[in-house]
Amino acid sequence: MNLLRAITTIGGFTMVSRIFGFARDVLVAALLGAGPVADAFFVAFKIPNLFRRLFAEGAFSAAFVPIYADKLESEGEPAAHEFAERAFVILLVFLIIFIGLLEIAMPLVMRLFAPGFLDDPAKFDLTVMLSRITLPYLLFISLVSLIAGVLNSGGRFAAAAATPILLNICLIGAVLLLTPFMPSPGHALAWGVAIAGVVQFVWLYGALSRSGFRLRLRTPKITKDIRKLYRRALPVAFGAGIYQINLVIDTIIASLLPSGSIAYLFYADRITQLPLGVVGVAVGTALLPLLSRQVSSNNHEAALAAQNRAIEFSLLLTIPAAVALFVIAEPAVTTLFQRGAFSEAEAGATSAALAVYALGLPAYVLVKSLVPGFFAREDTKTPVIIAAVAMVVNLVLNLILMGPFLHVGIAMASVVSAWLNAILLGVMLYRRNHLIFDERLKKRIPRVILACLFMGTALYGGLDILQGWFINNEYTRIAALGILIAGGLLVFASMALVLRAVQFSDLNALRRSRSTS
Question: Where are the domains of the chain?
Answer without folding.
Answer: 3-437, 443-517
